[in-house]
Amino acid sequence: MGVNSQGLESPPSKRTKNDSEYVLKKASFAHKEGRLAEAEKGYLEALRRKPDWGQVLNALGTVFLDQSRPDKAKKVFEKAADFRPPYFPACYNLARLKQRENDHKGAISIYRAMLEKQPGIGEAWNNLGVSYREIGDQDEAISCFRRAVAFAPDMAEAWNNLGVAQDEFNMIENASKSYRKAIEIRSDYASAHFNLGISLQKLRRFKEAKEHYNKVLETKPNDEAAKFMLQSMGTSATPDAAPVEHVRRIFDRCAGTFERILVKDLEYKTPELLFDLVRPYLADEMNVLDLGCGTGLGAQLYRPFAKRLIGVDVSSKMLEKAAEKKIYNRLEVFDILQDWGFPQKFDLIYSSDVFVYFGNLDTIIRSASSYLVYGGIIAFSVERLEDNSMEYRLFPSGRYAHSRTYIQNCLRRHGLQLIEETKADIRKQSGNQVKGLLIVAKKEGIG
Length: 447
What we know:
Radius of gyration: 27 Å
CATH topology of the largest domain: Serine Threonine Protein Phosphatase 5, Tetratricopeptide repeat
Shape: globular
């Protein structure tokens, strides 16, 4: 007699082991219970009986994903996606897999084909928007997120993503409304509360911003980013630096649109200004470190002088964009507050718009000095704090400004001689010029 999934006997006339539907149901039950090897075996048996069964191919692909075998998953998803008509759940899963692999153009192609046939899939529009944002197409991203919330008005993630896209267009009031909509749907949505807090800070509505950061901490009591943003509004003592995960999250999220927004919208010109200041001290065949390289803005200026050009950054997404330029000899994810372990010393270390995420620069300057050859050069930018009675100050922007006196003392403590400095407008923020200080210093002594 046959045995069903609950261990009860069933009449062979109603359900037998030769029945394909029974094989599928048994495999599905094993899958739900996490018995992956048994589920895989069952799905393969079902496919032996019926090779072009899209539902089973898709289920088998998800088993392979659960087993951390993405290559095998990809093959079965592709097979189901190639059917005519394609099996849409497999198309969706294939597109998601391509997104995980950072093949966003491949994912876009699949989502587009799906949505031509079934335009009402809100989740697909949301995911399509994410891929457009990753490749830097802001306009298409916001268009997709708008369609996502139109077709799936109760999808909190889509409202949050729409808010992020609106923020990137400097549509701060609209972004705030989108984040609020996400929170209406999911009251404990920490990401939406955090993003709304950022928007409210930009609008100088600090009391409301604090409320939303505190909402984040109700859900995630150890969230360093929320604590830091509260500190930026003077709620407690100023920390030495922004939390590394906070900085990583900022730049991972904006990597695709970083250059367009920074250069076009914020008139960012620090790399060029800093290069002009350090140019008289450059020579041929230098070992160069781009500290906090981001997407590699300005790297092409230094490349002609570099025997070897190394780029490091805390954000892996930014490094992916930098790699596309094919300028660097090596790129690596790197937290500059940790111990440095480079195999060689450098003739030049330069850093544009990085030190603004650190208040106390002592550790960074000490590390940089120890990795400069004697006579080597360090060049960097800071936001300028006019009050020389203070060392540094954290502003509600979440960025630090440093005084000229503090910078001079910090350099002197670590054997660096200030040789150039200049005031400059380094970018815009909320429509206003940000006052900066550009510094070039030389390591004293004889090698």
